[in-house]
Specification:
- The complex is a heterodimer of chains A (153) and B (377).
- Chain A is an alpha/beta fold and 153 residues long.
- Helix content of chain A is 17%, strand content 33%.
- Chain A contains 3 helices and 7 strands.
- Chain A has helices at residues 2-18, 28-32, 123-126; strands at 36-44, 58-71, 79-85, 103-104, 114-120, 130-132, 144-152.
- Chain B has helices at 5-31, 40-43, 48-61, 63-80, 98-105, 115-130, 144-147, 149-152, 165-176, 184-193, 209-222, 244-247, 252-258, 291-294, 306-314, 330-337, 356-359, and strands at residues 87-89, 95-97, 135-141, 232-236, 239-241, 261-263, 266-270, 285-289, 319-322, 347-353.
- In chain B, a hairpin with a 5-residue loop joins strand 1 (87-89) and strand 2 (95-97).
- In chain B, the strands form 4 sheets. Chain B has a 4-stranded parallel beta sheet with strand order 3-10-8-9. Chain B has a two-stranded antiparallel ribbon with strand order 1-2. A two-stranded antiparallel ribbon of chain B has the order 4-7.
- Chain B is globular.
- The chains are: A alpha/beta (153), B alpha/beta (377).
- Chain A binds chain B through residues 14, 17-18, 20, 44-45, 47, 50-58, 88, 107-108, 110-112, 124, 129-133, 136-137, and chain B through 30, 34-40, 42-44, 49-50, 52-53, 56-57, 60-61, 86, 244, 247-248, 291, 323-326, 330, 333-334, 336-338, 361-362, 367.
């Protein structure tokens, strides 16, 4: 009996953890920064793309499917590739001496999550540092640079 | 089962530690209105990638671990002389990068050697550049552990010609393929035998200004640098630097205990105006590589690294492309994205650290260079 109660309690706790209020991810920064603003679903996090690096700072290219376009010339449903700076850090802690003006509410990158992002393109014009691109040679077109990345659902 | 109070206390304390960490982490996450990572176990398909990501998130996101880890590391480092997975405490206060020491002493895991891939990538890069009329010069930069095995291991001896097997295979493979390769291993060995000052920093994995000067001299000699006075001069620019091997441990207590090193850098300036050295993207020499090119160049004091000193030795500015930790492949990918950097080039100098022959980020794929964009006259 006690086991059953504990199991129900644990299930309720986990359900509560998983439950989230409706959130379109909009805030002043995501609405104003960059030249493109989309809500997009993170398709996958490739193996070895996001991990805590000891010393060096990289941007990592992640693949998204655009769900809604709020600003800029991107087609809904399009696949886009977005560079996130030091993606192993919560977005609110990602800016540093080298890369400033980035941020957001996303704490970590999970496949399937929905992000509302303010983007800049082409990324190479904005970011001159190292890029980890698991899609190198397999994708076409310029990558986008994530200026602001908020959680949405 | 023992009912001794000490046993009960030990069991209770152990259980409290085991159960307390997730309770504290969960409470902190809920207070921040953040979903605990453990919830992902129930909201995402249990694929290998998802489970690894969740495990990683639990490790990195744990408030308890973040609070306790620096102190545990400090206790291990200062009390037990143990630098963990990344750092090896050598002799005389020197620190070493453990993967570099393992590169020297341990065989690669089965299928773990990348030397053949590296040779194929270098040959491919040479051929791509040849087709554009550009010469390639390869500069493998010795691991600190290869230059100072006597300070890495008890009973180690100064190197007398021995190389890590993968390095020896790579150097001979380059020579067989007719690829110009600068042998800094021999130059550093000769310099040590002649009593040169330290070529590497004691608490950092990179070279000192003395080490980089030898490397610059060798590369400039291969490039047939012109004799005579340079358009550049140098100014003393000493800096205090906390070594990367210290910072890697991410413990303020260790940083305070080890302290910073004073490094006698020399900043390169224009001789006639005193203006700081600046790259010229239109130069006929492109230098690409990893953090051995970045140290002192974009790090403090600036304009005092390999790139600026090579420019001084050549008497003209160079173009450069640097990717920390990505000298093998990421920097070549950067070059593919920025093909204009190849315009007007006669030589590409490619420097990467020796251990990349086993540990290169993203391996050693053969990359095709895009055609140079046509200029509209």
């Amino acid at each position: 009996m006690n086991d059953r109660i504990a199991l129900i309690g644990l299930s309720l706790l986990l359900a509560a953890c998983g439950a989230r209020d409706r959130n379109d991810g909009a805030d002043a920064q995501v609405r104003s920064l960059g030249t493109v603003e989309v809500t997009a679903r993170l398709v996958e996090v490739p193996e070895g793309a996001v991990f805590h690096r000891d010393l060096y700072d990289y941007a990592t290219i992640l693949k998204y499917e655009v769900v809604a376009v709020h600003r800029g010339a991107v087609a809904a449903g399009a696949t886009i590739f977005v560079g996130h700076y030091d993606p192993w850090k919560p977005r609110a802690e990602a800016a540093d001496k080298r890369v400033q003006g980035i941020g957001g509410t996303v704490r970590r990158f999970r496949a399937g999550d929905l992000h509302r992002m303010a983007l800049e393109t082409p990324m190479d014009d904005v970011f001159m540092g190292g890029i980890v691109d698991k899609y190198f040679g397999k994708r076409e077109g310029p990558a986008y640079w994530a200026v602001w990345t908020n959680e949405a659902n | 089962m023992s009912t001794h109070p000490a046993s009960r206390f030990a069991v209770a304390a152990f259980a409290a530690v085991i159960a307390g960490v997730p309770v504290v982490d969960g409470t902190v996450d809920l207070a921040r209105r953040v979903r605990p990572p453990v919830a992902d176990l129930f909201t995402q398909p249990p694929t290998q990638a998802n489970l690894r990501a969740t495990e990683h998130a639990m490790e990195e996101g744990s408030a308890v671990a973040r609070a306790v880890r620096p102190w545990m590391l400090a206790a291990r480092f200062l009390g037990l002389r143990d630098g963990g997975d990344k750092v090896l405490r050598g002799r005389g206060g020197w620190l070493f990068y453990r993967p570099g020491a393992e590169y020297l002493t341990a065989r690669p895991p089965a299928g773990g050697s990348m030397v053949n891939d590296a040779l194929a990538a270098v040959r491919g890069f040479r051929d791509e550049l040849d087709a554009r009329g550009i010469r390639l010069m390869v500069v493998p930069v010795p691991n600190k552990e290869s230059v100072y095995p006597d300070r890495t291991f008890r009973g180690g001896r100064p190197p007398a010609g021995a190389l890590a097997p993968e390095t020896a295979a790579f150097l001979s493979g380059c020579r067989r393929a007719g690829i110009p390769v600068v042998d800094l291993f021999a130059e550093f060995r000769i310099a040590r035998a002649a009593g040169a000052p330290d070529l590497y920093l004691a608490t950092d994995s990179h070279w000192t200004p003395a080490g980089l000067r030898i490397a610059v001299g060798e590369v400039a000699r291969h490039l047939r640098a012109p004799a005579g006075p340079s358009a550049y001069a140098v100014l003393p620019a000493p800096v205090r630097r906390t070594g990367d091997l210290v910072r890697m441990l991410q413990s303020p207590a260790i940083e305070a205990a080890v302290g910073a090193e004073v490094v006698a850098c020399e900043r390169v300036v224009r001789a006639e105006s005193g203006a700081p050295y600046a790259d010229d993207p239109a130069s006929d020499v492109l230098v690409i590589g990893d953090s051995f090119l970045r140290i002192y160049e974009t790090d403090e004091p600036g304009g005092a690294g390999f790139i600026a000193h090579l420019a001084r030795a050549l008497g003209r500015p160079v173009a450069s492309l640097v990717n920390d930790g990505g000298g093998a492949t990421l920097v070549r990918q950067d070059l593919v994205r920025r093909p204009r950097l190849l315009e007007g080039k006669r030589v590409v100098v490619w420097a990467f650290v020796e251990r990349d022959l086993r540990l290169a980020a993203e391996g050693w794929p053969v990359l095709a260079l895009p055609d140079l964009p046509r200029r509209i006259e």
